[in-house]
């Protein structure tokens, strides 16, 4: 049977592209084809497109492409929001049209017709809350409170004035070039939400990620139970083994069962695989942002700490070279990736996150932001 091998090949290529896109810049993949695929997906493909447009249509078409890029990447726009609504709407419509006829089924209760509506509605509500809520805009009226709430650590945050807003930028804040405003406890600008993720809406964003991870997982599992119920009710395994003499083993039955499912329930399989892949990706994002919440760190601060540590390593190496110390050959990148041991240069660099107050207090700060507490408003008079 060629069908199972086609599925394996398709899944392998999809996994390679996803891993290359998300993880291709990790040190472990440096110099490998995974890094080259990542470079092509994130930079090379667009660069070649520009060259092709310029060669085929001239400067005017190239400027048009650059203008579209500027609108999509450098200005607030609802393109990804519309895309999200389209994905959710089309996916749910396909499920309703192709799979609701099997509910209730052998393994699936009729209650799931209504649970799916509730699940999608809650996801849409979290999307609206994240997209249209104030992320924590820093203004001349509230900057003094934010300055008192978030002290400078003297390492990645030092007192300076925002050149655009003309106010003192509080620690943990950043001026978003897309939204053109300073955002307290800035995490990142999310194109999917067309909004910054900051002090006031991080809770909605994390809830959005977790809920959509659960929705996709729930949808993939329910579709799997629908397919299993169809196999049971139609006695596919019994017919294959008794009437067609197929060996009653996984290796013997799998090609025939897969061929039957692809012929009869190809839409359910495609949707289930799609939901499973999205659930896998969202699971990684959920784990990452949960870690950030538990340690009271933001995505912006993570990059700042990485830059600081790299700078300190470079300074330490230059000092060692100036003192005439013999530099040891660097360890294998695989050993560095899987080992928790550190070099001497690494041991002298300490990441002192003064905003980490313990997991419970960190989570409380995410779900009950400082700017929504009574103590925050009292600081105005201080």
TrEMBL record:
InterPro entries documented for this protein: Palmitoyltrfase_DHHC, PFA4/ZDH16/20/ERF2-like
| Any one GO biological process | positive regulation of response to salt stress
Q: Where are the transmembrane segments?
A: 6-28, 81-102, 114-132, 204-229, 236-257, 269-288
Query: Cross-referenced Pfam families, in alphabetical order?
Result: DHHC
Please indicate which superkingdom the organism of origin belongs to: Eukaryota
Per the UniProt entry, the Enzyme Commission number(s) are 2.3.1.225
Q: What one GO molecular function would you report for this record?
A: protein-cysteine S-palmitoyltransferase activity
Provide the Palmitoyltransferase DHHC domain boundaries: 158-306
Q: How does it sit in the membrane?
A: Multi-pass membrane protein
Protein's UniProt keywords contain Nucleus: no
Q: Which reaction does it catalyse?
A: L-cysteinyl-[protein] + hexadecanoyl-CoA = S-hexadecanoyl-L-cysteinyl-[protein] + CoA
Question: According to its UniProt record, where is this protein mainly located?
Answer: membrane
Compartment(s) of residence = Membrane
Protein keywords: Acyltransferase, Membrane, Transferase, Transmembrane, Transmembrane helix
Q: Sorted alphabetically, which PROSITE patterns does this protein's record hold? A: DHHC (PS50216)
Q: What class of enzyme is it?
A: transferase
Q: What family does this belong to?
A: Belongs to the DHHC palmitoyltransferase family.
User: What is this protein's name?
Assistant: S-acyltransferase
């Amino acid at each position: 049977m060629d069908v199972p091998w086609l599925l394996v090949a398709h899944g392998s290529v999809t996994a390679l592209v996803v891993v290359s896109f998300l993880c291709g810049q990790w040190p472990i993949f440096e110099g490998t084809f995974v890094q080259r695929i990542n470079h092509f997906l994130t930079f090379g493909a667009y660069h070649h497109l520009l060259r092709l447009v310029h060669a085929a249509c001239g400067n005017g078409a190239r400027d048009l492409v650059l203008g579209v890029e500027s609108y999509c990447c450098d200005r607030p726009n609802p393109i990804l929001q519309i895309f999200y609504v389209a994905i959710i709407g089309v996916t749910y419509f396909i499920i309703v049209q192709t799979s609701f006829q099997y509910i209730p089924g052998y393994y699936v209760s009729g209650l799931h017709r209504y649970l799916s509506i509730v699940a999608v509605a809650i996801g849409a509500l979290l999307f609206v809350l994240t997209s249209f809520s104030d992320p924590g805009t820093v203004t001349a009226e509230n900057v003094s409170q934010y300055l008192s709430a978030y002290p400078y650590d003297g390492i990645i945050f030092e007192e300076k004035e925002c050149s655009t807003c003309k106010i003192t930028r509080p620690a943990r804040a950043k001026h978003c070039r897309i939204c053109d405003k300073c955002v307290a406890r800035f995490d990142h600008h999310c194109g999917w939400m067309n909004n910054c993720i900051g002090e006031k809406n991080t809770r909605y964003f994390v809830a959005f990620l977790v809920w959509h991870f659960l929705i996709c997982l729930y949808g993939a599992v329910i579709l799997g139970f629908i397919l299993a119920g169809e196999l049971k009710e139609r006695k596919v395994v019994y017919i294959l083994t008794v009437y067609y003499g197929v060996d009653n083993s996984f290796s013997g039955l799998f090609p025939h069962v897969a061929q039957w499912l692809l012929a009869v329930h190809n839409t359910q399989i495609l949707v289930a695989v799609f939901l499973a892949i999205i659930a896998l990706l969202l699971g990684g994002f959920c784990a990452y942002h949960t870690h950030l919440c538990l340690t009271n760190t933001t995505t912006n601060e993570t990059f700042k700490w990485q830059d600081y540590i790299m700078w300190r390593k470079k300074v330490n190496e230059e000092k060692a070279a100036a003192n005439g110390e013999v530099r040891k050959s660097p360890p294998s990148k695989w050993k560095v990736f899987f080992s928790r041991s550190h070099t001497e240069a690494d041991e002298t660099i300490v990441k002192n996150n003064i905003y980490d107050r313990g997991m419970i207090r960190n989570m409380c700060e995410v779900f009950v932001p400082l700017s929504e507490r009574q103590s925050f408003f009292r600081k105005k008079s201080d």
